[in-house]
Design a protein that fits this description.
It holds the Pfam family FGGY_C. About 40% of the residues lie in helices and about 15% in strands. By secondary structure, the chain is an alpha+beta fold. α9 crosses α16 (about 415-425) and α14 (about 350-375) packs across α15. Bound molecules: 6-deoxy-beta-L-fructofuranose. 6-deoxy-beta-L-fructofuranose (LRH) binds near residues 62, 63, 64, 240 and 244.
């Protein structure tokens, strides 16, 4: 994406779009799900070529995953996808020496099986050959500039970052058996990463082009672009492959209730805290579409969403946060199995299945918004939905109904907008703080409002656990 920023002006243009996904390859463990990180980098270079004259480059991506470099700065193996099963059982093993309570007290992070800490432990002997760990945006930035570093918002998702001290948690790393040499110096959104290495600068004809650190965790950039009025009590849903549901805080919330509700305290741009929980998100829907396509019965997203809108409401609901929805696979079968387990009739048509997923997603948003509010004691008067999910009318409408407050949907390209705004500020634009950036979003981006209409959400919530089902 290229962005243009000026007084009263904020525009994005899509320059190049390419698919990204796991690549499963056989090995002695059976198989491993990797990312094609060199393919991604090739597309980044092609995109930079297509972009024409720009003032800077900022990179954001999904969190937690990384590449390992050897002492010569060469990539050691192909980065592994966080949905790979190599981390199965690792968290439990680590927590025998490092109790979950202690991990949370230092890092403020929610327990997810794929936190970088657990992935690094799963590397085992391979870590001996590694000199540096670079999270995906830092790895791409390293290839562009030759400079290593760890951008702070993404570092905060590793479970190796001390959220109060704002440093790497070296002590925790050592106790987990992770060499601290792997953790490079931290950098902040707005810092200059470097300029293009000479070969690239020549090839692309961009000699002094800076790479600027942004909120390199996509969710951090997306939250920058939440168009909240400064005076409102807002929750946000950054709705894409994952749905990240929560509040923006000034200080981490590290109490018992936050731990019990499995909320995270990720670091945001300008030192904010993203107090949120990962909800499984539109992943379950896209995997459903993929399953149908693989079977030779492809479905069009708009068509199945229209069928879902006409299907009966809350006929069946599932807990999308259940671990069985994390790995790639046959989601229709998994949804049906959970319905049976919880005493509900599995959806019988495509429209009903998609309705079940979207209802369940709205229900998960309701639960996370309520818990965030209860744990922090802060009311929520409006829910901002940003990211791809903001263009899903059914989801936004049901989210307003489930949460019982208005939903403001948009912008769709929140992460790209947050990325561009932070870069623009670093390069001299008059955007002193988050409030100024959000004002510019409100002034320039189309937003849509959904009023809550009610519904039997509390009763549906009880069906999630299958309480009262006789086996
Ligand atoms: C969303 C996201 C999320 C992480 C997950 C791995 O893209 O970055 O915030 O938890 O991917």
């Amino acid at each position: 994406m290229t962005g243009t920023v000026g007084p009263g002006r904020l525009e994005l243009a899509e320059v190049r779009r390419f698919p990204n996904g796991g690549v499963r390859v056989a090995d002695a463990t059976g198989s491993t799900l990797h990312w094609d990180v060199l393919g991604l980098y090739r597309e980044v270079l092609a995109g930079l070529g297509d972009a024409g004259a720009v003032a800077g480059i900022g990179i954001d991506s999904w969190a937690v995953d990384y590449g390992l470099l050897d002492a010569d700065g060469r990539l050691l193996g192909n980065p592994v996808h966080y949905r790979d099963s190599r981390t199965d059982g690792v968290a439990g093993r680590v927590q025998r020496g490092l109790p979950a309570r202690e991990l949370f007290a230092v890092t403020g992070l929610q327990e997810l099986p794929f936190n970088t800490l657990y992935q690094l432990v799963a590397e085992g002997e391979r870590l001996a050959a590694a000199e540096t760990m670079l999270l995906i945006p830092d790895l791409l930035g390293y290839w562009l500039t030759g400079r290593v570093g760890a951008e702070r918002t993404n570092a905060s998702t590793t479970q190796l970052y001390d959220v109060r001290a704002r440093t790497w948690a070296h002590d925790l790393a050592e106790r987990a058996g992770i060499p601290t040499r792997l953790l490079p110096a931290l950098r902040d959104p707005g810092d200059r990463v470097g300029t293009l290495v000479p070969d690239l600068a020549r090839e692309l004809g961009k000699p002094e082009l800076p790479v600027v650190a942004v909120g390199s965790h996509d969710t951090a950039s997306a939250v920058v672009a939440v168009p909240a009025e400064p005076s409102t009590n807002f929750a946000y849903v950054s709705s894409g492959t994952w749905s990240l549901v929560g509040l923006e805080l000034d200080e981490p919330e590290l109490g018992e209730a936050a731990l019990a509700a499995n909320f995270t305290n990720e670091t945001g741009v300008d030192g904010k805290i993203r107090f949120l929980r990962n909800v499984m998100g539109l992943w379950v829907l896209t995997e459903t579409l993929r399953t149908w396509a693989v079977r030779g019965e492809p479905a069009d997203l708009a068509t199945v969403l229209a069928e879902a809108a006409d299907a009966p409401a809350l006929a069946a609901v599932v807990d999308l946060d259940a671990p069985e929805f994390l790995p790639p696979g046959d989601m229709p079968a998994r949804v049906a199995a959970v319905c049976r387990k919880t005493g509900q009739r599995p959806p019988e048509s495509r429209g009903a299945l998609v309705r079940c997923i979207v209802d369940s997603l709205a229900l998960a948003y309701r639960r996370a918004v309520r818990q965030a509010s209860e744990v922090t004691g802060r009311p929520v008067d409006v829910v901002h939905v940003v990211g791809g999910g903001a263009r899903n009318e059914l989801l936004c409408r049901l989210t307003a109904d489930a949460c019982g407050v208005p939903v403001l949907a948009g912008p769709v390209e929140a992460a790209a907008l947050g990325n561009v705004l932070v870069q623009a500020r670093a390069l001299g634009a008059d955007l002193p703080d988050l409030a100024a950036m959000r004002r510019l979003i409100r002034e320039t981006q189309p937003l849509r409002r959904y009023e809550p209409r009610g519904g039997n959400w509390a009763a549906a919530e009880e069906r999630l656990s299958g309480a009262g089902v006789v086996a």
